[in-house]
Amino acid sequence: MKPDELEVLEGLVDRAGDLLARTPADQRCLLGVVGAPGGGKSTLVEALLPALAGRLGEAVAHVPMDGFHLADAQLDRLGRRERKGAPDTYDVDGYAAALFRCRHDLGHDVFVPGFERSLEQPIAAALVVPAPARLVLTEGNYLLHDADGWDQVRPLLDECWYVDLADEVRRQRLVARHVLFGKSPDQAAAWVETVDEPNALLVAHGRSRADLVIAP
Length: 216
Description:
The chain is of the alpha/beta class. It has one domain (3-214): P-loop containing nucleotide triphosphate hydrolases (Rossmann fold). Helices cover 41% and strands 19% of the residues. The protein has helices spanning 3-21, 41-56, 72-78, 92-104, 167-180, 185-204; strands at residues 29-35, 60-62, 110-116, 121-129, 135-140, 159-163, 212-214. Strands 2-5-1-6-7 form a five-stranded parallel β-sheet. The model has no long low-confidence stretch (mean pLDDT 94).
């Protein structure tokens, strides 16, 4: 990690620590990281998790929004598979319920689904928020979306940070990701143009409601 990137990361860890210090003792602190598809949300969270655990000496947990993707069988049933990744292709009610449990149920482990990129499918109970955890990071596209039931999510978060990567770089990363997981270059470019980019515009509408904007 470059010195300037390390400095930014340390500042974010400081901010998360301050947020945790202000959280009531009978609740967990929930920190959201949001951004457009391919914007670097997961990369940031992967850097934050060990840094936070090392600095705070607290159990830090991770609840990715992608674990609440509807499985392909349900998308096929609903006729939405060709729009996979749109707001109505997730179990938003299940996600909000899981976040509510994460905030308030300190006495028990909270099991949550993960997402397996190689399968492009959610995996039930793949992750856990351990009972001692006080800080939970959750990342995804629609944490600041205010329609389709997503307005349930923001009130459950103590803060929400928006990762704002340059569009050209973000699109290049998306195409490369789709190719890595099996699409041809032409298929990947078409998917980014017709599916990912309309979703990115929806995500961008929530930028002004973020507590912090991070430009990698």
